[in-house]
Amino acid sequence: MNNKQNLIGIFFAVLVLLPFGIFGESAEDIIAQVDRRQTSDSEISELSMTVIDDISDMNNRKVFRLESFSRKGEEDGELSVFFFREPRRLAGMAILSRDDGQWVYFPSTGRVRLLSGAAKGGSINGVGGDFSYEDLGTGNWGEDYNFSLISSDETLWKLEGIPSSDDVNYSRIIMEIHKNDYIPRRIEFYKGKINPEKIMTIREVSAFNGRMNPAVIEMDNPSKNSRTLIEIHKMEFDRPLNDNLFHPRQFYR
Amino acid sequence: MFLKNRSICVFLYFLFLCTLLQGQDNISLTGYGEISGLVGLADFSEPEKDQRFGAALSSTFRLELMPMSGITAVLEGTASFSGGYLNPLGRFEATGLPLDASFVRAGDLPGADFNALFSISQAWAAWSYNSINVSFGFIPISWGSAWLIHPSDRVNPRNLNSLFSDETKGVPSLTVDLALGWNFGASAYICLTDKSSDGLVSLDEVRPDKLPFGLKFMAYPAGWEISAGFVRETISSDVFIGNNWIVADITGNLGPFGITAESSLLLPEKDGDWDPVDALELSIGGTYLVDPINLEIMVEYTHLGAGSKDPDFYDITPFLEGTALFLARDYLFSRFSWSGAEAFTVDLAGIFNLNDGSVLLLPSLEWEPLTDLVFNVGLIFPFGKDSSEFGGTRPLGPGLSWKPWDAGTVICNMKVYY
Fold first, then answer.
1. Which position has the higher pLDDT, B49 or B317?
2. Which of A175, B309, B364, B377 has the greatest number of C-beta atoms within 10 Å?
3. Residues whose CB is less than 8 angstroms from the CB of residue A8 and which lie 6 or more positions away in sequence, other chains included
4. Chain A within 8 Å of B224 (Cβ-Cβ)?
């Protein structure tokens, strides 16, 4: 085989293998796919959240049931509203997130309160467990962080994200993304340099209305020895949601 | 008497409805039962005084119906049995003053060992269509974002309940809420009762110039909420006493701090003297969450223009009327709230009278051992000189005096949600 034949062979091999990503995808490409597959025009879901204050005492747990509505804002950003169904103590309480504000409505008092910035970053008092208000509001990873590829094996990509926005409460994140579906399986959230503040693990991925989505999400907080589990029971996508659902006015009497 | 019998009928009808509608998809039935006990701590300055005890038992039901898209109806009622110092009538009787006419009108017997009361705290229906929401019935009207008192709330009485609970009772009213585009809104109410909330006004009292109403406009610039409006407050419609207020409320975030500023300014009457400092009610404060230890810190300054800087001029009448909770002019409210492990929440609140130096300390401990079961132990510790607001005794009239904040009190409470 002469050199000319070799070159033609290599040319065709490259042509055939290119669509299979022989050269690999960049971190930006991967995270763009993650965002694209996680994003929909709107989402309606029913979920339960189990808060375990101390992992060594797994029987001591609180369970919350919520109904959630979310959609894209007119400009960038996400609009979401959570209605608590259980426990009965919190039934009817609602949390609305839009723009930079988060409002909580208490049905027993009829009062509406705008949350402070610090409260947003912290756990929802007695409610949110290890998910902060920021974690509950679905973010746009590509906008909030600059990512670089750390490693890659047969099934997972490992990416590191450094904040590109002042609104983010973490100093960096490490994300493992499955190559089959571009759904993250593990995210480590750091505030310091060495030990992660929180570790999020996707335990189960299911099809909801024909679309793959995390169904069981676990958040561990090693420093507090606590764990919070979110189970999604029902999910619908791209249903029209009225602006009024995301207007604080809806709670006023 | 009419009002009480009607409440009983509505409450029983309500229970009947709850039984019938249980299990329907568009219906939510929630509620809670509550057992409370009160013990007065020994007052060593007055050893001859009787010890104070109180007990109360109550059950509250809340029924929410959504019969069709855009229509919501809510009915919330409470059956309560109270005695001793947890019986509001007994507490009032302890002052030695004649009972308020409204109690007699409601058919309650003062001095009874146990006071049984059926009350409807909310009964309203709302209709929503696009950007407008209209509600009518017994609606809780809860204006204001401050913590200690709400200067812009000119509907609800200010009393001990409003200090220990943020819950507001429904008042017969019509409210309209409007979304004016994405970043603006308007809210208005008109009430068919005065601030004493002693029942519906009689026919000859329903004159437009007597009815309390409020109108405010809201704006939501990124992460903030700003509102301003006008409020007509009717203290009493029997002998008409009305006030006009301009109200404003701002809440938002400055970095990690949550900021709240709420105010109301009493407008001058035609021929009266007017001093803006006397006419102003203002609450301004901030909150901060110490994230690593989940400690929330809250500090708020409150100015009450109608109050006095001099303890000799403290006026106890508005306190007894339920139109004022405090007697002085300037206060500092602080609160430290720590939600720790094992379902405990520790709270330490303090109200500091900046004019006479007296203090009301309000520590409490909450424990939720099981879902929907909550225990609470709270203490009320007043400190101050004899002439001060929280430590002193106030003269009421010839031979009559009253110590509004008696020696320390312990209140225990158990709540079960169902």
1. B317
2. A175
3. none
4. yes
